[in-house]
Structure formats: C-alpha cells, structure tokens
Design a protein that fits this description.
The structure holds two protein chains of two kinds.
Chain A: E1 4-7, H1 8-18, E2 21-26, H2 33-42, E3 50-53, H3 57-69, E4 73-78, H4 80-85, H5 87-96, E5 100-106, H6 122-126, E6 137-139, H7 144-161, E7 164-170, H8 171-175, E8 177-180, E9 206-207, H9 214-234, E10 238-241, E11 248-251, H10 254-269, E12 274-279, E13 281-283, H11 287-293, E14 299-304, H12 310-318, E15 323-328, H13 337-351
Parallel strand pairs in A: 2-3, 2-4, 4-5, 5-7, 6-7, 11-12, 11-14, 14-15
Antiparallel strand pairs in A: 1-8, 6-13, 10-12
Chain B: H1 24-39, E1 45-48, E2 64-66, H2 73-83, E3 88-94, H3 95-101, H4 103-111, E4 117-122, H5 152-155, H6 161-166, E5 171-178, H7 182-200, E6 205-211, H8 215-218, H9 222-236, E7 240-244, H10 246-255
Parallel strand pairs in B: 1-2, 1-3, 3-4, 4-6, 5-6
Antiparallel strand pairs in B: 5-7
Helix pairs in contact in B: 1-7, 3-4
Classes of the chains: A alpha/beta, B alpha/beta.
Bound molecules: thiamine diphosphate and iron/sulfur cluster.
C-alpha cells in the first residue's frame, strides 16, 4: 500500500472509515476540527455512512451510543472541554457495554484554557472521567503512523470487549503531518445478539444502565470489573527506546515522548545514558513492564505536558523501588528537546 | 359464546405497571402498544425510554428498547433511525426530560426533521424525583421546589412545547392531547397512530404532547386531577393540532 502524507486529524478520520466506522457525530472545537470536517466530506463515500454535526458534544456521544446499539461501528471526536461534556454518555456506554471510539485531541486547560497542545486530560481519560465504577481503554499514540494503526485497533478492541475506547492525542499530533501507510483492517467480529434492530418475530431485547436492585447492580459492577481485569492482563502496550544501558529513563507518552526522543539524542551525543519508556496504552497502564525495569534502573524522570498526572501511575508502578523526578509544562506550553535535555543534564550532574 | 372486548395489547408484556394509581403513563403505554399492534410494526419498532417515571418502559413494551440518559432520547433515536431507516423509532419523554435538560436534543431533532416519533408526557412536574417544578409547571402551582407556588419572576413561565415545535420548519406533525376522559383518550390514540403513520410514510418529525395525570405529586385524587386538567392545565396548554403538513410532505415525497 502507498504512503500518504496527511495531518493527524485527517489520519484518524481516514483510518476510522477504513476500519468500517459508519456513524460519526461531532461538534466543532479546535484543535480537532479537521477530523470532523474530514468525516463530513468522506463519510459520504462510505456505503451507508452517516455524518451528523450534532447540536452539542452531549448529543454527539448519545448519538454514537444509539448507532452503536443499532449495530454499526461508531466514533465521535472533540477536544478537552467537549470531552468533559461527554462524560455522562461515556459512563453510560460503559454501563450498557456499547462499543464506540472517542477521540480527544487535547488542548490547554482547565476551563476554556487555550487551543494549544497539552496533556492535562490524563486523569480524566484514565480514571474513567464520568461517574461510577468503570474504565475506558485509552490509547496514547506517539506518531502519525500510530494514529492510523491504533485507530483501527481501537475499533477491534471496542468490539472485542464491548466497551468505549478513547484515543488520547493532543493538538500537536492532530495538526502535524507525517507520511503513513494504512494497514488492511480486520473483518469485524461482533455478534448480532448485541445489536438492537427490532425484534422481528422473536423476543424483544432491551439495553439499560439502570439497575435498581443493589444485588443486580453489584453483580453488573463486578462483571465489568472482571472484564477490566482481562483487559489489563492482555492489552497493555508500550515502547522501550535506548533502555539497555540507560542510567536514567524518561517516562513520557504522545507528543511528550517525541520531545523526549529528541532530548535523548542530544544527551547521548554528550555521553549521557538516557532511555525512554513510552506507555502506548495509558489505561491499562503498562505497570508491570515499568516495574520490571526498576530491577536495574534506579532513576526515572516523568515528563508530561501537564503539572504531573501520569506521574501517579509511575509512582504506583515503581512502588518506591526507584527515584522519580518530574518535569512538566502545563497549559499549552510545549517544551523543546533542548529544554528537557538541560533538565536531565542537571539531574545527571546531581546524581553523579 | 362470550366475546372478548378488552384484552392486553400484544405489544405489552405481562408485567404489572409500577406506576401510581391514576397515573397517565399507564394509559399512554397502552395506547402506544395498541397502535403498534394495529399497525403491525412490533417487529420493526425500537423505543427509547427516558430517565423519568417511564424509565422502566422496557419492562412493559414488548419491542426492542434502549434507555437514554436524561434528556438525550431524541439524539439516540436520531442515530438509530439514521442507522436503520426502515425501522420505526420513537422516544418516550417526560416534561423535565424533553423541555428542560433535553430541550436542545429535542428541538434539533425536530428542526432536522428527523423521521422519528416523540411521545411527550406533560404532567406539569418531575414525577420520578418526587414532584419538583418542571418547565411545564403552572404559575402558582405548588411543587416541592416552588413551595410558594411557581412565580414568573423567579421561575419563568410554563413552556409551550407544541407551539414552539410547530414553528420549526423541520417538524411535520405536532398535536397536543389530554388523557383525562374517554373522549380524550380516544383522540390521543388517533394522534399517536397518525404520528407513527407519518414516520412509516417517511414524512418527518412527529410529536404528540399528552397532558397526563400525576395525582401523587399533584396531591389530588384522580377525579380532582382530571378536573384540574380541564380547569387549569388545558387553559395554559390547549389541546389541538399545532402543525400538520403531512399532505404537503406526501406531495413532495411523491414528486421526488
Ligand atoms: C443527568 C441527570 N440529572 C438528573 C437526573 C434525575 N432525574 C431522573 S428523572 C428526572 C425528572 C423526571 O421528570 P420528567 O421528565 O418530567 O418525567 P416524569 O417522571 O414526570 O414522567 C430527574 C431530574 C438524572 N437521572 N440524570
Ligand atoms: S409519580 Fe406521577 S408520573 Fe410518576 S408514576 Fe406516580 S403518578 Fe405517574
């Protein structure tokens, strides 16, 4: 297949259509508008594809829930404030076990914040965001190629576990252009028995989140918890970069991980042995893999475009077996590789 | 030989309604089920119950159903209908659900002319949560959150949903009915049937607003409730057909 040069937002949209997404609803918000616009233009070429510019992000998430129940692959996208509005719907999809993809092209926050790239929605994405005992699978892609691949994988995973999957990228990833190859999507595997398409001459079905009996509700919560355990066991993804001889390992995801790679190159040129651990699934977090590294590596630096959110997961993973430092720039400020390299060089001096 | 003159519609399950005695929801459920039976559309109908007293409607209607978060029924119904255009899709909503938290989803579904049917229960209060003020609560009506009676300067005015929706170019059929008498019930059934037929014929957005009893939260007997609906409620919300462009919609459909 040919390489094409596309922007991140367009890549996600194109990958979704190729993966068989046939229903998209979204509400304009920068820096993800190109995704919505691409869907408006290209859903038309898909057989029976539906695009709706919804009246709000709340309507959009409930639309995709409805279309998901009706049996098609669905996606919505937004940026931080809009994702906040979707939370009740995401919780509801998790409760009703409806597959669907939610894309968050993060911007600076809190509040209206700004339209620059940031990673301040990590807690919201990985802790559930909405109410109740549920989890959302969260991908944190780090390259445009990963945007293409993981978007397709997200649809498979959402179907496999009948649960919403979030793609958590930021304004930088959404706007940047890189060459990508779209892989061949796998055929969809999703049973008709989960679809609501009219009872025909058979028994009618219903899909609900309300469980008034506490015992039923408790059992449903445990059932979901067991599913999340299976996901945690089987679906974590991460990348290790220059780890073998590293004396300090940066832990970063998405755009921050790209910056970290730039910093690592500079530092290695100066003879400093620095590596990168990059979580690709943010939930489930690759906890055991990171802990395993602490057997021989004793210095970690968490680097995020936030005041320190993934930092909590790194602490939980390392359990005090290693030193953890943090460097972050929140609110849409994007650090340069040189800045990060300086921070690390100073740390290395201190450690020597 | 005895003749059956009254029986449970096939599209209702054999479950006992949880609704209070005298509640309008029970009446309207039955009417919707009768219409589904008569139109023989049980197998292709998908219903969207709300958060509200009718949240358990899937225990009663023997059709496929998916519960919507509070107010979002029309968004879900929109998506289901667009995904499965040959199914009959209806949302069933209370006045808090449709006219307060979900007014945006409702207005925009109507304005897009979504080919769905909305069954809108106006009982002038929030039933499920214990009788708080709804957007449709009458001026001076006492509720748990308007203990001195609804006052326009504090609480605004009762909202006339059918009148508003009839102004939208996207809507096709809007009627307001009242279920406080046998005649009213019969008329309501006709309106519901017309609304579903409008959808089956592919003619666009239809809504039946139904003035409905909530004796529990009105703190009245059923008989007094029926009287109050005549004397107070229907003065603010006069029953009638507010929009019916079915004939022109049919012509346009035939021409294209
Ligand atoms: C987001 C959200 N807010 C509030 C509620 C609580 N709630 C459930 S039903 C309801 C109002 C019900 O009133 P109405 O829509 O008029 O229906 P009725 O019960 O009178 O039939 C409210 C406020 C909820 N379920 N979800
Ligand atoms: S509270 Fe009112 S609307 Fe709810 S079931 Fe009782 S009578 Fe019906």
């Amino acid at each position: 297949m040919n390489k094409v040069l596309m922007s991140g937002n367009n890549i996600i949209a194109e990958a979704a259509i190729r993966a068989g997404c046939r229903f998209y609803a979204g509400y304009p918000i920068t820096p993800q508008n190109e995704l919505t616009e691409y869907m408006a233009e290209h859903m038309r070429r898909a057989d029976a594809g539906v695009f709706i510019q919804s009246e709000s992000e709340i309507a959009a998430i409930n639309m995709i829930a409805g279309a998901s129940a009706a049996g098609v692959r669905v996606m919505t996208s937004s940026s931080s404030p809009g994702i906040s509005l979707k939370q009740e719907g995401i919780s509801s999809m998790a409760a009703c076990e409806l597959p669907g993809i939610i894309v968050n092209i993060m911007r600076g926050g809190p509040g209206l914040g700004n339209i620059l790239p940031a990673q301040g929605d990590y807690f919201q994405a990985t802790r559930g965001g909405g109410h109740g005992d549920y989890r959302t699978i969260v991908y944190g892609p780090g390259t445009c190629q990963e945007l293409a691949d993981l978007t397709m994988d997200a649809f498979d995973l959402a179907d496999k576990y009948r649960t919403p999957v979030m793609i958590l990228a930021d304004g930088m990833m959404g706007q940047m252009m890189e060459p990508v190859i779209f892989k061949k999507p796998k055929p969809r595997q999703y049973s008709e028995k989960f679809m609501l398409r009219g009872a025909g001459t058979g028994k009618s079905k219903f899909i609900r989140g309300l469980l008034l009996d506490p015992i039923d509700s408790e059992e449903h919560n445990w059932k979901l918890a067991r599913k999340y355990d299976v996901i945690t066991k089987n679906e974590t993804l991460h990348e290790e970069h220059n780890i073998e001889d590293a004396q300090l390992v940066i832990v970063a995801y998405g755009t921050a991980a790209r910056i970290a790679k730039g910093a690592i190159k500079r530092l290695r040129d100066q003879g400093m042995k620095v590596g990168l651990f990059r979580p690709i699934t943010l939930w489930p977090f690759p906890e055991l893999k990171l802990r395993a590294l602490s057997a021989k590596i004793k210095n970690f630096l968490v680097f995020e475009m936030s005041t320190g959110q993934m930092l909590d997961d790194v602490r939980l993973a390392l359990q005090g077996y290693a030193n953890i430092e943090f460097h972050g720039r929140p609110g849409g400020a994007v650090p340069t590789p040189a800045e990060l390299a300086n921070v690390i060089a100073r740390l290395c001096d201190k450690n020597d | 030989m005895s003749k059956t003159v009254f029986k449970r519609p096939k599209s209702l399950k054999e479950n006992i309604f949880h609704y209070c005695p005298g509640c309008g929801h029970s009446i309207v459920h039955r009417l919707v089920a009768e219409v589904i039976d008569e139109m023989d559309i049980r197998g292709i109908t998908i219903g969207v119950p709300p958060a509200g007293c009718a949240v358990l409607a899937y225990n009663y209607f023997d059709v496929d159903m998916i519960e919507a978060p509070h107010g979002r029924g029309p968004a879900m119904a929109t998506a289901i209908k667009r995904t499965l255009p040959d199914r009959v899709v209806f949302s069933y909503q209370g006045d808090g659900d449709l006219a307060a938290i979900g007014i945006a989803e409702s207005i925009h579904a109507a304005n897009r002319g979504e080919n769905i049917t909305v069954i809108f229960i106006n009982n002038a209060c929030y039933g499920m949560t214990g009788g708080q003020m709804a957007p449709t609560t009458m001026l001076k009506q006492r509720t748990t959150t308007s203990p001195a009676g609804r006052h326009e300067t504090l609480d605004g005015y009762p909202i006339n949903v059918s009148e508003i929706f009839s102004q939208l170019k996207g809507s096709t059929y809007i009627e307001r009915c009242i279920v406080n008498s046998p005649a009213g019930v019969n008329k309501t059934k006709k309106a519901i049937k017309k609304a579903f037929q409008c959808q089956v014929d592919g003619l666009g957005f239809s809504m039946v607003e139904i003035l409905s009893l909530c004796p529990t939260n009105w703190k009245m007997t059923t008989i007094d409730s029926c009287k109050w609906m005549d004397e107070v409620m229907s003065k603010e919300f006069p029953p009638g057909v507010f929009k019916d462009t079915i004939a022109t919609a049919k012509k346009t459909a035939e021409a294209t």
